[in-house]
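P.,

For your records, the input lines for the assembly:
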Amino acid sequence: MGSKKRWILLLAVMMVLNLALVGCRGNTDDQKIGDDPKDGVTDIYDGPKILDYYSAAEPQTLDTQQMYGSPDMILANMFSEGLLRSGKANGETVPGVAESFKVSDDGRVYTFKLRSDAKWMDGSPVTAEDFFFGWRLALEHTPYSFLLSEYIIGASEYENYDQATFLAEIDSTFKNLSEEQKDERVENMTEEELTQYQAKRDELWEEVKVSASGSEITVELISATPYFPFLTTMPVFAPVKETFYNERKAKGDYSLEASGLNSNGPWKIVEWRHNENFKLEKNPHYWNRDNINLDILNLRIVNDVQTRTNLLKTGQLDGSAIQAKDIPEFTDIAVLEEYGLQTMVDMPDFASFYIEFNHVEDTPMKNTNIRKAIMYAMDRESFVTKINLGDEPALGFVPTMFPGYQKSFREESGMRLFEDNQKEKAKEYLAQGLKELGLDKLPPIDMMIGESDIARKIAEKFQEDWAEIGITVNLMPLPWSEQLTRLQKGDFHLASSGWGPDYPDPMTFLELFESTNPNNSGKYSNPEVDRLIRAAKTESNAKERMEYMYQVEKLLFEDAALAPQYYRIAHWTFKKYLTGVVNKGIGATTDFYWADIDMNAKLAK
Amino acid sequence: MLRYILKRCLYALITLWVIATITFGLMKILPGDPFNDPKLKPDVKATLIKQYGLDKSIPEQYALYMKNLMRGDLGTSLKFPGRSVTKMIQESFPKSFALGWRAMVIAVAFGLTFGIIAALNHQKVFDYFTIFIAIIGISVPSIVMGPILVYTFGVNLGWLPVTVDGTQISYLLPSLTLALGSVAFISRLMRTTTLEVLNQDYIVTAKSKGITKRKIVWSHVIRNAIMPVVTVLGPLFAALITGSIVIEKIFAVAGLGEYFVSTIFLKDYPMIMGITIFYAALIIASILMIDIIYGFIDPKLRVTGRRGR
Amino acid sequence: MDTVKYREINEELFAHVGKNLEAAEAIKRPSLTYFQDASRRLKKNKVAIFSLVILSILIIMSIIGPILSASINGHTYRRQDLSQQNQTPIMSNARSIMMTANDVFSYKKYRYNFRKTKLIFTNVQLKSAGKIALKVGNQTDEAWQGDRKEYHIAIEVVKSDTWSSILQKLNNESDAILKEDPSFRGVNFEIKGSKLVVSTPGERWINKTYWFGTDEFGRDLFTRLWEGGRVSFAIAFLSVFITSIFGIIYGGISGYFGGRLDDLLMRFVEVLMTVPDMLYIILLLTVMKPGFLPIIIVLTVTSWMGTARIVRGEVMRLKHSEYVLASKGLGADSKRIIFKHLIPNTMGPIIVNMTMMIPRMIFAEAFLSFIGLGIPVPYASWGVLANQGAQIFRQFPHQLLIPGITISLTMLAFNLLGDGLRDALDPRLRK
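Structure tokens returned:
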């Protein structure tokens, strides 16, 4: 029984300690305003301004021409700079390496004037040749090479001219070979052939309508592209210094380690511990260095959202994105005050989530009325107000606030293209659809969903909406890559999908439903939609283009080609001492270019 | 003994080869390819597939892989283009290991102590206390325990760092969370085997010979009871250094676990192969070590003098 | 010495009754089979019986629980009612409090209970004159507060104010609203040491429609808990059963025959154990539709190796023991030795292993759910419920506690029962 007594004693000691701790706090009753003891002047901090932030993942690559992931682009925006920079508003540009640009009257020819003081981190100037070298690297079938090849005259021809094309030209027997023999032939090209091939490539590069004269770069486009200036802010258009590239490639660390990264942007990467952290320092040769306030950026790589929130609360991060379930907490001003945070920033990240129908397979999904029943039965409003707080119900396809002709696309084309949560209407459509199909009851439908918490929740919500009108939907959670495989094979009934934009034009969304698009997994095909998309792609009048796109989107809903779910809204909060952070929905979503830190306040905690 | 060890090492190599082959086969059965990201256009995918030699026939790929493996080259990652798998493992494994050995120490120290004391106090307070710990350890998964501990001690009370930042103290929470299940497991196993040993005739004999309780416990009970526990230590150690995926995520440890899960989902073949083979080698080595240790400490095996099969 | 009278014993006192060979061989006590004997000893173990009762209750509730709540309250495990989301077993109509403006005081920490009906600010310091404003009540909290009313309290603090005058102002403001509208129920402001405590009073009542409260979709947790019990028990029992059978056969053969066969079989197990589970899981789940059966297969495939190793180890240990050698010497064949000696004697560790495996299976299922590959929603399992609860445990602790306690209770019961069974089944303890 001795041990029992000891336990009780321990407990008692703990309780007494507790009481003592509570008891020794001073009485506040007679406190007066202005009594604050630490009212004295704090020391003036004179050291570097240090930002503590995070990267949401280890970048897949920091090769500017190869990247397509979001954390990668945020970093690229810090250490590299294209002709222009992405500005404070979505789709807006500000001068980068080019101090200004002109566009011809027909909107096809852009002339960028390079500034003379744009320098690499070693002090050498950034030249037109650096840009051209980078663009040639990009045109090697890189993920975003289409941003060059689809717009610049001659770029596509250059990109598609490969060894096989070359061999077919010089060797008439080549095209009769089998695939395997062709590969073998390509691998065993002679020195001479390779030189010839390279010469031919160089020749073709000359045909690409980009040119430099003095400090000007001229780019000639296939058709007028009002958003082309924004494209030049993207990493794929970044300059690459050839000597640096060759030197580091030979050493085998180009873009793979801090030593293999060349910087012409506001900061340079001085430390990269993989999957752990980055350290960036202000680039002393950056042309606009006087307006860059942050001297050091410490970025920890933190994958888990909850962990980021914890680090924010314990003061190890100066800001963080906030997940939906923490929104009630961070909208409470008492919480913000406790941690010294600013009011949350809400910004659509332009991801649009929707349900994809399989239009091909012989299922009820082929029937327009059944699809409409599914689309109308969904109660999106409740989902975003009760379950996944802070998002916006999607009653169109192109997300809210996404740039359109002059205002946002949604404002111009209509905020709601159909009504949310119309159970009665859905029942009518269902009855109609069943009649057309000659069925009494709809057989159970499978829906592919992602493995994330939110994917599960949203499916769970809509599953009940559909059950209410008499449609049984079974949910199939699958790993991401498996989902993609099934999507590509067309092996699904319904799929919960999402799409984020590649460039600031609604076409990045709408072309998904062009019948030839490889990402049109449901094989939706409507000749009218195809015609309008083609028309929009070749139209030079910006307003007309947009008109075509409004029509495309409306047609999609007349057909119920997809059933929209929600537009994702990202939320951020930053410490009060950190000001001027810009959040955007496209490209580098967090931008510290204009940010400043009050180090005295930061150190005072 | 040396012959035995050599034999085991040879077995280990064969096992590794079989594992590499099985994993290779499993991955080729998995439908789909690693480049089916909808953001990649068909021409980009084709280029990538060619670049990584995935358009070659399976036997060809296998032969090439084995050839490189023999030279210790695990290939380059597909998810992180250009990065060497060997180097990525070299960089991230020490972090998993740092967490794993601390958890192992906690698990063994507490597990054995709890187990022995519980058995010696059979059906007394401490026994129930151990059962209670074991229940908590078994019934609260780290997915739940981790966030609760972080929130309580890290965020709310502010006593401990919420992530591993390299300092000793920052390892406390994650290794504790990681060890919890194993503390429970070891203490329960130790308790069971100790109870079993306590019922053995030789203990009764020893008691009747008048040997002190202390000596009986130290030189007879623990020695014999620890055997089944030792057999599980190898796999357990491997499990602790490989199985910290959830914990690495919660505590932002730049370990191997995080890479592993993400690459499996993305079908990053060289990474999956590399990590699997590395883990396998690790597990085999730890089992081998335990087997050898076992040979030294098992009193029965020493008497009979044979540990051969 | 006193005289002691002995009775004379002589032959006449005895009669020859003859030999009764039958009676000599007769077994007077009822013959007990191995399992009857075990169950007799198990019955004496109060703790084990208690565990058995708990387990029976849990299993019975899993069977009848959903039926019960369906017939009394009309709930099903999947019916959602978003207006009733996140309810608790014990409800309170206290209104939530939310600060909407504060220029006046600073504090170190801000803590609140899950519905924000009590806010605590620690180390409060007055900093400047200005406004304090609060919102009391929340229209989305209708299920609790009984109405959709929201009230606003705001005061101006001037330079000469002290804490007591500020509290006075706040309480006055609250009283004024209360006078106009009694359903407001008031707000209390107090200073305790250096803490400011703001709380609202309210009545408590037991939730009669949702006995265990609801989840974030407003689904009845009582129904979901027992529905989840069905799934969890079924998955755990089935997979442990299959695993054990397979493990016993495999490990038994390997351990008993030893030699080359053992080497081969064990190497094979080693190989399988070192290939990461995730690979099998993904492989199996990509070829099958997610659901109940694939989960059992995945769990079995990834865990039978452990059992096989344990059984093999035990068999190896026992086969050289004296009684097995004796039995062998008496000419017993392999079958008899395996089934009569080795298996009963390995039962202890196997049972301990099985009891440890049931919780592991429940968790393995939960892990599958965690990575999104478990039992498909809206079906529930305890793992799913605990995972979902863990995500919002800070806001709604009961959603973690209820499945958490149930799981722990199950674990406790299984472990204690396992211990009892070990004692009962161990032939060495036979008397």
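Two observations worth noting. The first strand of chain C starts at residue 90 and ends at 92. Chain C has a mean pLDDT of 83.

Regards
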